[in-house]
Amino acid sequence: MTIDLASKKILVVEDQAIMRETIKHILVSFGARHIIEAESGINAITSMRIDRFDIVLCDYNLLRGKNGQQVLEEARHLKLLPVRAIFIMVTCEQSQEMVLSAIENKPDDYLIKPFNRQQLLSRIERCYARKNYLVSIENEIDSGNLYQAIRNCERLLQQDDKKMRMQLLKMYAELTIKIGDFTTAEEIYQNILHERELPWARLGLGVVAFFLGYYDQAIKTFQDLIEQYPVMLEAYDWLVKTHESMGNDEHAVSSLNSAVTLSPLSILRQKKLALLADKTENLAIAKKAYTATIKLGKNSIHRSSGDYSGLANVYLKTNAANEALKILYELNQQFHNDPEAKLRAALLETEIHQAKGNKALAQQAYGKAQKLNEQFSKQLSRELRLEIAKTFYLNGNSEACDEILSDLVKTNIDDKLFIKDIVTMCDAIIGDNYAETLIQHVKKELIDINNKGVSLFQEGNIKGALAVFEKAITKMPDNHTITLNMIKIIIHDIKTSKPNPEKIASAQSYINKAIQIGIPHNQISGLQTELDTIQYKISQ
Amino acid sequence: MTANMPNTHILSIGFPAILASSVHDIKNSLTALRALLGQLENIYQDPKPTEFRQLEFETNRMNNSLMQLLTLYKIDLSQFSLAIDEHSASDILEDIVAQQSTLLSLSHIELTTECHGDLFCYCDSALISNALCTLVNNAQRYCRSKVLVSVAEEDDYIVFCIEDDGNGYPVNLLSSDYKQLPQVDLASGNTGLGLFFAETIAELHAQNDKRGFIVTDNESQFGGARFKLYLP
After folding, report:
1. Distance between CA atoms of A221 and A215, rounded to whole angstroms?
2. The pTM is what?
């Protein structure tokens, strides 16, 4: 296949002028007309804000500022790259790509330096052809319609294109895992492995075992893979996840530490290591990882004030209060317009001054924290709000603490890991029964809402039932039961009234959300089939 | 004490880091060098001076050697994994031709490829095509006028075969044990490192009890050297 470069918008990100010149020269000789050059990551991002590119060629080792991976992460995060676009990372050595491999956000392809004109063209062509072939799937994934993406995958597989078959099967299996259909995923991976031992298929089986709760089996799979492929970072990432789910945080820290040694430039791994090591009181590791995260964060979309407060907290725990204050000072400098950052700093300052015995300063910082919380409470991350609740309680304001905790339990009742964090905090500071009572209370409230909605529905008052659930969903947007009931009622409503595209779209978006918040496949797939049947009938 | 100082210094950075950044620097220089060569070449009309061909060959070789050095070093440290996946054999052939295309455009050598059937192999394609490129690069140098790269299925192996019409391999490179790195032969400029590398990479590819391997002989259908890489 040949590609018509004349119609493509191309961005070349490269810090060396001579290389930019050469790449441009090659592209022009192949007919390209729209070529934009950027000599730094920041300029690349600016260019991508202005133009929607079809092809991005980006050097990994940009001398100053962001590296290629950080450019890619930021572009994807800000949705600056169209689904169809290809992003090719230019690197110096082949094995670098594995070590770089970020937790998410892989480029579409790699190109190893030095390359000649034919190699450049051939890479672009092959990459573009693949992306084009898969675009019907990628589009649906991009809009969150995972069931439709799976159907498109199945359709393409039927065409039996041998070159694309493995790629399709890989996507197919990953999608079935995403919607929670682990039986199908397992079957796909087993079939591939029956043909040939492929590391990604083996990894997939481990992932399926993880989601099915067969943790020992998952751990063995990941450990075997690491033994055979010592730099397969994905196997490390899953091993860490499995240890965590089993409650073996110490093991998780040690596996993650090995992965970070292999990929010291991956900010998300460093960040995760910092948090885990902090949680398990491995303070030396935590300090090192927080420091690395802060350094990498300077050019990254993943930079966060939490990295600074985390490091300051570790200093505080190791009795280095002055070091901690220094970090907080830096935090305030770096994030001077960010209320969340200011709140983090104020909370820690309260603790530090208390530890140093400066009552007046502690009181002053606490006042600042209270005020910021009043102003911004709803915009703050849940982890930070849990911290605030703790500080409030410790400073004698149990009323404000109650308010935050009950809201956190309400909005996160289905998230077992976070509820566990709340319980741990409450048990340690407030008292044994506090969290339990709160959880029971919220569950009772949920049942009441549900009963009310369902009985309205049974009376035939669809509007009334919808109103009850709609109101509940604004308060508890991630609640499983409410979301499921909402979908059921909308579908019933569509069936019993005139077909209405808006209602269908609304049902589909709740289904997509249901997948996102982790409602199991067996509870969603029936509803999706019902909705598909309705749509099929309308289109007839 | 003072005599030990430099050594401790190196250890504190770590040799792997030094090697990696050296390779990185040299690769950047090589890339710039090739870009400059390209610009210089554009000034000349065809036929271009033969020195360009020699320069292209040498930079290819420097690049291949660097890559081999780094890969072998990592294998030695056990800091290396193959990235195994299914690849179409014709794509690998295409990669080799693309890599050699500049050199080809500067010479009168005919490089042809043959793919017998819709073949797929399970391998680390970047490494395999690198190993093959080194050998094709050499074949281009030692042949008279043609090189053929072909892929076929033999028993349960996928076999990549490079044949030329030159004088064939010297006896020391026909050894059945490529792990014995032949004596460096400065006169011919051929150290056998390319074969050693190909053998090492081939061996890393395994399926059940089968491993990859290489064979060299002078049975080329054009009367020159023949190299075969077997992948299970």
Report:
1. 10
2. 0.86
